[in-house]
TrEMBL record:
Residues annotated as domain C2H2-type: 275-302, 303-331
Function statement: May be involved in transcriptional regulation.
BTB domain boundaries: 24-92
Pfam families registered for this protein in UniProt: BTB, zf-C2H2
Listed SUPFAM superfamilies: beta-beta-alpha zinc fingers, POZ domain
Gene Ontology terms: cellular component: nucleus
Principal place of residence: nucleus
Keyword terms: DNA-binding, Metal-binding, Nucleus, Phosphoprotein, Repeat, Transcription, Transcription regulation, Zinc, Zinc-finger
Positions of region (Disordered): 135-244, 413-434
GO molecular function: DNA-binding transcription repressor activity, RNA polymerase II-specific; RNA polymerase II cis-regulatory region sequence-specific DNA binding; RNA polymerase II-specific DNA-binding transcription factor binding; transcription coactivator binding; zinc ion binding
Protein name as catalogued: Zinc finger and BTB domain containing 8a
Locations listed in the record: Nucleus
Domain of life where this protein originates: Eukaryota
Length: 434
DNA sequence: CTGGGGAGGGGGCCC
DNA sequence: CGGGCCCCCTCCCCA
């Protein structure tokens, strides 16, 4: 027989003990403010504390203390209250920092609730905006913005799928942030340059869906966490899909009965877009495009070049790379930029890289033709076909020949005869890339 | 320091 | 829905 109230009662008691500093065996110092808590509870709630306490318990029996500078006492209050009550007091003001702290403390429940909060906030913002522009919404009551910003999770409301409630101050907040850091352990922050590009591109996207709502998560203590991009990718896609399924109508657009989108009268002639990126304000028409777009957030690069090992997020980019870098498809002399044919020039191989030189430039450089086993190289230097698990589909023998090519060194110039009839090129590219 | 070109990367869209 | 093409932008290297 199970008494359903036992868990919550127990939690209440523990919370009471914490408030009265009874049996507290752990102190957490956050920017000078001391929080008392129970090791057992912290241990059970946070991966970070689990690690910390399991280490300190080996070393000493003294009361454990932890010090944090990465987040504010207010934020930790929210976290600690959640630990002891199962209720997360999220607002537009604190959600970013709470998520950041939760990420640091490895509290996946809290992270996912924060993500949902942010996501839902975006949904609601879209709806708000939609209503603002259309002035004809029929479901204003269902978008109640005054609901209390409490989230149940963990012990109390595990089954409930939390929806976000916007605080009135949301709009202000989003402007300050630009990108979500990977919230969980083993999630990979996109490359710095990508972030920069992303930020730039966002300004472009903002034309489509304003106000800016992208969310930036300050990395706790500046720690870059290693990542499992595939995990993240799957998560993102799932989230994106949910977005699209639940409510992803961009400004001015709403769903009809089926999957069709009906655009309302709108000041700008916006395209009919319907899939919104959960990480930025980008909106696309097709799910496949969103899937592709998500890779720029997840950093996923499923297409490795078998010739040089460089990885690409898209097959067409890999193909393009392979053609220009490893197949010398451009009929242009690299040196003098003149057009060359198989009669007026030759392909030069430099390591795994190939390009063309006209006969004049070849003579100038002073390189004689050297025999190259073209067939074998074509075999080993072909882009993988969507190699999801990052392994190259090569036999051992093929692998060896690849290694030989790479180890051949990039300084050696190898000349081979140009044999680039169109048919030949087709043959070289197509079978490998599919 | 600056401009040009190559390469990479992202979006739109056609097939 | 995936593949692939085109276009555009940014970064980096080099003259």
């Amino acid at each position: 027989m199970e008494i359903s109230s036992h868990q919550s009662h127990l939690l209440q008691q523990l919370n009471e003990q914490r408030r009265q500093d009874v049996f507290c065996d752990c102190s957490i110092l956050v920017e000078g403010k001391v929080f008392k808590a129970h090791r057992n509870v912290l241990f059970a709630s946070s991966g970070y504390f689990k690690m910390l306490l399991s280490q300190s318990s080996k070393e000493t029996s003294q009361p454990a203390t932890a010090t944090f500078q990465a987040f504010s006492p207010d934020t930790f209050t929210v976290i600690l209250d959640f630990v002891y009550s199962g209720k997360l007091s999220l607002t537009g003001q604190n959600v970013i920092e709470v998520m950041s702290a939760a990420s640091f403390l490895q509290m996946t429940d809290v992270i996912s609730v924060c993500k949902t909060f942010i996501k839902s906030s975006l949904d609601i913002s879209e709806k708000e905006k939609d209503r603002y522009f259309s002035l004809s919404d029929k479901d204003t009551s269902s978008n109640g913005v005054e609901r209390p910003p409490f989230y149940g999770s963990g012990w109390q409301e595990e089954s409930a799928s939390p929806r976000a409630h916007l605080s009135p101050d949301h709009g202000k907040l989003w402007n300050k942030y630009s990108y979500p850091a990977a919230p969980q352990r083993n999630t990979q922050p996109p490359l710095a340059s990508e972030q920069r590009k992303d930020a730039i591109k966002k300004t472009k996207h903002l034309r489509l869906s304003q106000p800016p709502q992208a969310v930036h998560l300050k990395s706790a203590q500046g720690e870059a966490r290693p990542s499992d991009s595939s995990n993240h990718a799957a998560q993102s896609e799932e989230q994106a899909q949910t977005d699209a399924e639940i409510d992803s109508a961009p400004a001015g657009c709403q769903y009809g009965q089926g999957s069709d989108v009906t655009c309302r009268s709108f000041p700008d002639d916006l395209p009919r877009l319907r899939f919104r990126c959960p990480y930025c304000t980008h909106v696309v028409k097709r799910k496949a495009d969103l899937k592709r777009h998500l890779r720029c957030h997840t950093g996923e690069r499923p297409y490795p070049c078998q010739a040089c090992g460089k990885r690409f997020s898209r097959l067409d980019h890999l193909s393009s790379h392979f053609r220009t870098i490893h197949q010398a498809c451009k009929l242009i002399c690299r040196k003098c930029k003149r057009h060359v044919t198989d009669l007026t020039g030759q392909v030069v191989q430099e390591g795994t890289r190939r390009y063309r030189l006209c006969n004049e430039c070849l003579a100038e450089v002073g390189i004689d033709s050297l025999p190259v086993d073209l067939e074998a190289e074509q075999h080993s230097m072909s882009p993988a076909d969507g190699d999801k698990d990052s392994r190259w589909h090569l036999s051992e023998e093929e692998n060896r020949s690849y290694v030989e090519i790479v180890e051949d060194g990039s300084s050696d110039l190898v000349i081979k005869q140009v044999e680039d009839s169109e048919e030949e090129e087709e043959k070289e590219i197509k079978p490998n890339i599919r």
